[in-house]
Design goal:
The structure holds 2 protein chains of 2 kinds. By secondary structure, chain A is an alpha+beta fold. Chain A folds into 2 domains: 299 residues, no CATH class; 63 residues, Dna Ligase, domain 1 (2-Layer Sandwich). Chain A is built from 13 helices and 25 strands. In chain A, β1 and β2 form a beta hairpin. In chain A, α3 crosses α11. The longest helix of chain A has 25 residues. Chain B is an alpha+beta fold. Chain B has 2 domains: 108 residues, Immunoglobulin-like (Sandwich); 164 residues, C8orf32 fold, CATH 3.10.620. In chain B, 22% of the residues lie in helices and 38% in strands. In chain B, strands 1, 2, 3, 4, 5, 13 and 14 form a 7-stranded antiparallel sheet that branches. Chain B has a 5-stranded antiparallel sheet with strand order 11-10-9-8-12. In chain B, α4 crosses α7 and α5 packs across α7. The chains are: A alpha+beta, B alpha+beta. Chains A and B meet through α5 of A and β3, α3 and β13 of B.
Chain lengths: 470, 313
């Protein structure tokens, strides 16, 4: 039996130093008061309208993401190490994307097999040779990190397409400050509220050349998207327009939006819509969400898109195993954050190992996201494992497998009271002229006992994340 | 708009052509806005120089921009804002072709397995470029069935282009030209099973066969000269856009085969451009606002011009 690291307790009776102030405070709270605050939190979230659409079961229903009032606390030194690792990793990923869409040195040097890139569904041939501002492709990265032990952090995924969740990070903080203002007097908690300002600065810094006062917009596929709330929220927080494809058009080799004062030039599009839907002339012809001709303006360097088209080729699960090699290749550095050892089922020996150890492994679809289409071996029935085995055998190249990590836990309020639940952390890393981030990120928690799936789409909850300043 | 960027051929032209390509859309109701992305400008490369070219649009476009796509093909974007029920796009081009490799050299190319090994091991710029055309693409998948069909020609150690030529001939013999049997969305398996289709299907099929073996192949878009019925049989695919296949060989570069006409491409094919499959080089791709039901008519005329007095620019 592996020993599970708890964020709050080093053993059953001992609270870790950075949690001591909080634990003492919590023990002083009468149980009814805590219960009342939890009810208050739920009511406020419902009123504010922070909801999340879940695909699959109950399709079309909007749901509240459960919020837990026990914060996930990380001390300043540990965060400093994480932050260094994140900057290193995202820097290497941007260098990789620039290389793939230009000289392809990493392919020529034989570090990554070309078929992993050139036949990758996320690779966009149209981006080859295109210059993007500051050579940045992944302007906003949501890197999922888990802890498996003291100082032992692993990156699970680099989300470089349209990572979401930052609105929960901000709302969770607001909620905690409202419910427990005294906690923020007792603890030196690093602020996160300036994220929208950082994001706007970052987006403005990658405007097309020669534009001194760029117009930034947030582009959404519309209100039926599961993260529509966040799109509206970020646009409002940044003080920029929230637009859909039909609100914009191309003329004179520029992008414009329709406003009540007539057409207004758009310079930077923070797009929360997948590559395929951006431009029906270039990609999916049946897309009604995009702007015809957008790609040509983009290729001419007269509008910036964040993230860049084709950034997904770097966060694909089949490319993930190569990230440590990228760090080594582009930066000549050793990776600070660990990668989870990954079996690539496209390889014969890895496939054989995976099939022989399905009950111990986590198996993921190479192109999957949001916790859909994955198998958590230890938590699955024989029948589920057998059904998944058939899928892997039919299309081995579509799957990777990883050992089941003993994710750390944190005490969390559940029906039976306070109990340890597994969690992860998604910091949001901004790249432009520089690489910046607010301290912390979004902590997601699996609410089912023993569950390792924290995705909101799979019924996970969230917590406020505190980085304790010294 | 003549193009002089491509490397000039060393040989004298073997043919010169004037090509007129007319696309005629008739809409049921007026179109208020039309945006079109055209691949209708012949590309200049080592076997072809584009001497002159223009695209006329009725009603006239408000905006037009020339460009180059990822594969190096010439493109044009047009925006038509005049409301219209009829749209005519007329592309006029004059090209000069220079001679290509003959059959003798094809017999002496390297064994195909060697090329396959190069594709997985060699990381030179030229091989990496060819890798763009090595994998499945929107209209071309790879499958064991396609590989089995290809293997009949791709026997042990057979010279790469010799095998390609036989594959081209077999597709011509085994498949029947039938413009009612398929459309652009028909999957390759269905074409392979049904044994009928049009030039696009045959090109996609041959490309799928080659890629299933681990060999790169390009989709070629363009036109073909058709001969009057008197004397010889009329070539199929006349008076429309045509499609064929380019096969890679390290000794000779890219060599073109036309499975629809059982021929090695010499001096009767005018190239517009190339890509992984049809989707990369569709001559006209667009979005219209309004229009309702539409009718499409395409007319292509390829006329030989005298060679005398013209040296490639």
């Amino acid at each position: 039996m592996t020993i599970i690291f708890d964020e709050m307790y080093s053993d059953a009776a001992t609270v870790r130093p950075h949690y001591r102030e909080f634990a003492a405070w919590l023990s002083r709270q009468p149980p009814q008061a805590v219960e009342q605050k939890r009810a208050e939190a739920e009511l406020i979230f419902r009123r504010v309208g922070i909801t999340f659409a879940v695909y699959g079961d109950n399709a079309g229903k909007e749901r509240l993401i459960p919020f837990d009032i026990i914060p996930r606390i990380i001390d300043a030194d540990e965060w400093a190490g994480l932050q260094k690792g994140l900057v290193q990793r995202v820097t290497a990923l941007n260098l990789f994307l620039h290389d793939i869409y230009h000289e392809q040195r990493i392919l020529k040097e034989g570090i990554i097999p070309p078929e992993q890139i050139l036949q990758n569904a996320q690779y966009r041939a149209a981006m080859q040779g295109i210059e993007v501002a500051s050579d940045i492709y992944a302007h906003i990265a949501g890197v999922d990190i888990v802890r498996a032990g003291e100082g032992e952090f692993y990156v699970l995924e680099d989300n470089l397409r349209v990572p979401s969740g930052v609105s929960y990070m901000l709302e969770n903080r607001k909620m905690m400050m409202r419910l427990f203002p005294d906690l923020f007097e007792r603890n030196r908690i690093a602020p996160v509220e300036h994220y929208p300002d950082l994001l706007l600065d970052n987006l403005r810094s990658v405007a097309p050349q020669g534009i001194s006062d760029p117009t930034v917009v947030v582009m959404t596929p519309g209100m039926y998207n599961s993260a529509y709330f966040e799109h509206a929220f970020l646009a409002q927080q940044m003080g920029v327009a929230l637009v859909q494809g039909e609100d914009m058009f191309v003329a004179d080799n520029r992008v414009f939006m329709r406003t009540t004062n007539g057409p207004e030039r758009v310079d930077v599009i923070y797009r929360r819509i997948d590559d395929d839907y951006l431009d029906p002339l270039a990609f999916r012809a049946d897309s009604t969400l995009g702007v015809p001709g957008l790609l040509e303006v983009y290729r001419a360097g007269r509008v910036s898109l964040a993230n860049a088209i084709g950034a997904g080729v770097a966060d694909d699960k089949s490319i993930y195993p190569f990230v440590p090699d990228m760090i080594n290749f582009y930066l000549s550095e050793r990776p600070i954050l660990n990668n989870v050892p990954t079996y690539q089922c496209r390889k014969k020996e890895d496939l054989a190992f995976t099939l022989a150890h399905l009950s111990e492994l986590v198996v993921k679809e190479v192109h999957g996201a949001g916790g859909y289409g994955m198998l958590v071996g230890p938590a699955s029935s024989k029948a589920e494992i057998e059904a998944f085995r058939q899928r892997i055998v039919a299309r081995p190249e579509g799957y990777i497998a990883q050992p089941t990590l003993a994710l750390s836990t944190c005490p969390t309020f559940v029906d039976s009271g306070l109990a340890p639940r597994h969690l992860d952390l998604r910091p949001f890393v901004l790249s432009g002229k520089t690489v910046t981030m607010v301290p912390g990120g979004l902590t997601r928690v699996a609410l089912q006992e023993g569950s390792l799936v924290v995705n909101s789409s799979q019924g996970g909850g969230t917590k406020d994340t505190w980085i304790l300043e010294k | 708009m003549s193009d002089s960027s491509a490397s000039a051929g060393h040989a004298w032209p073997c043919a010169r052509y004037r090509v007129v390509h007319e696309t005629h859309y008739t809409y049921q109701s007026p179109v208020s806005l039309s945006q079109q992305y055209l691949h209708m400008t012949p590309r200049s490369f080592n076997y072809q120089q584009t001497e002159s070219h223009r695209i006329l649009i009725d009603p006239a476009e408000e905006e037009g921009r020339d460009g180059t796509d990822y594969f190096g093909n010439r493109t044009r974007h047009v925006t038509i804002t005049v409301p219209h029920k009829v749209l005519l796009v007329r592309a006029e081009s004059t090209v000069a072709l220079t001679p290509r490799h003959d059959l003798e050299r094809i017999r002496a190319t390297l064994p195909w397995e060697q090329l396959r090994a190069m594709m997985t091991r060699d990381r030179s710029a030229e091989i990496l470029e060819a890798c763009r055309y090595l994998y499945a693409s929107p209209h071309v998948n790879c499958s064991p069935a396609l590989e089995r069909y290809a293997r009949i020609s791709y026997t042990l150690s057979r010279p790469q282009l010799d095998a390609a030529q036989e594959l081209c001939h077999r597709i011509h013999e085994d498949f029947e030209f039938d413009d009612k049997a398929t459309d652009i969305s028909t999957p390759l398996e269905e074409v392979l099973a049904g044994r009928r289709g049009v030039c696009q299907d045959f090109a996609h099929l041959m490309i799928g066969c080659l890629r299933s073996l681990g060999l790169p192949a390009r989709y070629m878009s363009g036109y073909i000269l058709t001969h009057p019925p008197a004397g010889q049989p009329r070539m199929i695919g006349a008076d429309a856009s045509h499609a064929w296949v380019s096969v890679y060989c390290p000794d000779l570069g890219w060599v073109d085969f036309d499975p629809t006409n059982r021929s090695l491409v010499q001096c009767e094919h005018v190239t517009l451009g190339w890509g992984r499959d049809y989707s990369d080089v569709a001559p006209m791709r667009g979005i219209v606002l309004g229009g309702g039901e539409q009718e499409l008519e395409v007319r292509v005329t390829v006329s030989p011009l005298p060679i005398t007095g013209s040296t490639p620019a």
